[in-house]
Amino acid sequence: MFTRYVRDPVQGYIGLTDIEKQVIDTWQVQRLRGIKQLSIASMAYPGGNHTRFDHSLGAMHLAGQIAERLRASVTISEDGWQMIRLAGLLHDIGHGPFSHSSEEILVKYRGLNHEQLGKEVVEKSELADVLKGCGFEPREIIDLTFGKEAKGKRYLHQITASQVDADKLDFLVRDSYYTGVEYGRIDISRLIQAMDVIGEDIAIDLKALYALEAFMIARYEMFLAVYYHRSVRAAEIMLHKAMDYTHDLTGLTTFKNIDEFLRMDDAYIQTKLRELDPKAVDPKKRDHVEKAKDLVARLDRRDLLKAAYQRDVHIRDPYVAKLLSDEAVRHQKEEEIATKSGVSPEFIVVDVPTLDSIPYYPREIDPMEVPVFKLTSDDKKERVPLSSYSRLINVLKGYVDIIRVYTLREYRKQVEAAAAEVFKTLPFAAQISM
Questions:
Q1: Helix 126-133 / helix 114-124 crossing angle, nearest 10 deg
Q2: Burial grade of 389 (CB within 10 A; 0-12, 13-18, 19 or more)
Q3: 335-344 pLDDT, tens per residue?
Q4: 201 Cβ partners below 8 Å, 6+ apart?
Q5: What CATH number does the domain located at 305-434 have?
Q6: In whole angstroms, what is the distance from residue 390 CA to residue 382 CA?
Q7: Can you give the pLDDT at residue 431?
Q8: pLDDT tens digits for 374-384?
Q9: CATH (one of 3.20.20.30, 1.10.3210.10, 3.20.20.140, 3.40.1230.10) for 4-218
């Protein structure tokens, strides 16, 4: 069991086993100290500087608590319990610099997301040797952490990857704590206490419905207040553009193996961006480097893009709801706004909450899919539809999208007028040239 403890301001004392201590002390895990959980959200929330390392410890801690709770109805061995905690610890091991912001670029140019990279880290780095030395096969950890199920027991994987899992429970309260935004405060203990296994799935007892509803509300409110905050997104867009312009020059997308990838953290990329010299690069790339340097200089002065237009869209059609997540569609709308406003499309950005650079958005997980159960008169556990017992969940079921258009301060007025005309009719599926 635990041989030492770490004091965490969010989860309290987190116990560590000898195996966890060995894994935590690897360079691959320690690297997460250099990757901020919320990228550059500190531009709006100065306290939001916590890291993927902090969160990984918290997720490991809660994964262990959920496993302990499930032992009341299913058999989980000591090795199984340890693997579940390791899955919580390693679930974010494949994140790149500035987390989701670089992930969007890696998907675009290399077809790699943080889960695919995570598999590579666990299987092909020094971490694999440490796991083997502790008696665990890296492939088993990969299946449990990044797969769909574990040895036919879907509920084991769901501890760290489901609608209400250790990952989400920790990041909501952790992001809330460090940003100072109170909306993420949820009753984690009650939710875990209410968990059980029905069939192959983790389900939540309807007796804890109020805690589940509070969790759903917290996700939505944190999305509005933090993850899609105007200034947070403005800074994120600028950082993303700078990294995209120079992705090959900084090494973000040109690494040859997993060890080269792991050398990169927030400070590494930030330094590379600042050191770029437009005069020292291929003339064909000079324009992109100059743009990137300008964006980084603006970020250093906190001279952020301004939201010229915003429209909230409440729709239930999944196709229409996801339409603007297509990069080509967004660029089409940017061109239309540019034409109508007389502003170069270079200074216009259509932003929607369906991009990889946003850590969470309301429709990411369908609240109707959260498994719940009730006890029948003869004490049997019966799975029931959540919508039959919660009016609030029915309200949250609708898709909520926020369309924003960002531009430079000096172009705000004309871009606002043009964007209002472009987005005046919704849904606009028929207007899109696919």
A1: 60
A2: middle
A3: 999 999 999 9
A4: 154, 155, 158, 371
A5: 3.30.70.1370
A6: 17
A7: 47
A8: 999 888 999 99
A9: 1.10.3210.10
